[in-house]
Amino acid sequence: MAVFRWGNSWGSLQQFEREMDRLLQTMNVTMRSGRSARSFPAVNIYELDDQYLITAEIPGVLPEDLEISVTSGVLTIKGGRSTDGEIPQDQFRRQERIQGTWERSISLPDRVDEDRLAAELKEGLLKIILPRSPKTAPRHIPVISS
To answer: What's the distance, CA 116 to chain centroid?
Structure first.
């Protein structure tokens, strides 16, 4: 009967992964997550009758660290989260939370009323309300019989 030893035989590979992540950090790409920081934060976009509602989970980000703008039909969310300064980078066993500054741009399908935009950050959930411009709000067209 064969006996297998269980242990951390992946230590060298994990060390290589950490080193590659450090090298690729300048390009906003990590091997662990398999996704770019350009897709952070993940968002949900809801199309309601007279507005769009965009939600994003951004735990650990303060309202004063956010900048939200709409220009030419593109919503841009910029923000940042400070690093865990108490723990040196080389002591992380796994780091999946994005640290530092980030920016996310989302194309909007319709024009929005830029004078009535609103945003709220509560318990790590960002809600952005983008009222549709009256020109682009859906209109009901009654059909009459002749």
So the answer is: 23
| Strand order through the sheet with 100-107 | 67-71, 74-81, 100-107
* Annotation: CATH topology of 40-131: Immunoglobulin-like (2.60.40)
Q: What is the pLDDT of residue 108?
A: 84
Residue position matching structure tokens 């830029």: 114
Domain ranges of the chain: 40-131
Reported as half-sphere exposure (CB side, CA atoms, 13 A), residue 40 has a value of 21
- pTM for this prediction: 0.63
The length of the chain in residues reads 146
In one-letter notation, the amino acid at residue 71 is T
Expressed in angstroms, the distance from the first to the final Cα of the chain is 89
* The predicted structure's pLDDT at residue 43: 92
Closest CA to 96 of 44, 37, 10: 37
Q: What is the DSSP string of 46-110?
A: EE-SSEEEEEEE-TT--GGG-EEEEETTEEEEEEEE---TTS-GGG-S---S--EEEEEEEE-SS
Show the low-confidence residues of the chain (pLDDT under 70).
1-11, 24-39, 83-85, 136-137
